[in-house]
Please model this.
Amino acid sequence: MKHPLAILLALALGAFSSSSALAEKADRDKPMNVEADALRYDDVNQTSVFTGKVVITKGTILIRGAKVDVKQDPQGYQFGVVTAEPGKLAYYKQKREGVDEYIEGEADVIEYDGKADRVKFIKRAELRRLRGATVADEMTGSLITYDNTSDVFTVDGGPGSPTPAPGLAGGRIRAILSPRVSASAPAAAAPTQPRVQLRPSTTIGGEKK
Model:
C-alpha cells in the first residue's frame, strides 16, 4: 500500500502540472551521446555497459554517474540504470517544454525508461524544479518517480527503509512547493493619487508680485 503522503503529494502536483508545461517531448527521439572511461557492448542482446565518470546527453537530458547500463528493445526504446560512485549521488536533468524550467534530481540509483518516458530516483532521492537558475520546488524521499508524459511526481518515504532521505526518519518525505504565478494574472493596480491642480503663483522667490 502506498504511503498516504505520497498519494497526497502526487494529487497536489498532478493538479499543479495540469496547467504547466510537459517535459521536452523531442528528447525521446534524439540520439544518446555517451562519454565514459570504458564500454562493454553486447550486439546480440543490445546492451551497453559504460563505466568510469559516465556523462550522457540525449537532447536536453543530462545524466552523470559511475556506471550506466543501457538496453535497447526491438522497437528502439532505450532503458538505462545509472549507479552513483560510492559516497556520491547519480544525477539527472531535463528541460520542460516551452518554458525556462528544468527538472533536476539525484539518487543512489536512477532508472530511465524511454518507452514509458519515466524516470525513477531510488534511495537518498532528491528532486528539484528550477525556474531559470532558481529552485522553485524541492522534494526528498526514498523513491521519487517522475512521469514525463503527464508531468506528475510521486514521492515515497519508504516505510522501514534502511536508507531514508538525508535528515529524515524512515517513512517520511519532505517537499517545498512554491506558489505558481500565472503569467496572465493582471498586475496589481497602482494606488490612485489625488489629481494636482496647478495655480498661477503670485510670488517670486517668496516676494509678492
User: Anything to note?
Assistant: The domain at 4-179 is CATH 2.60.450.10 (lipopolysaccharide transport protein A fold).
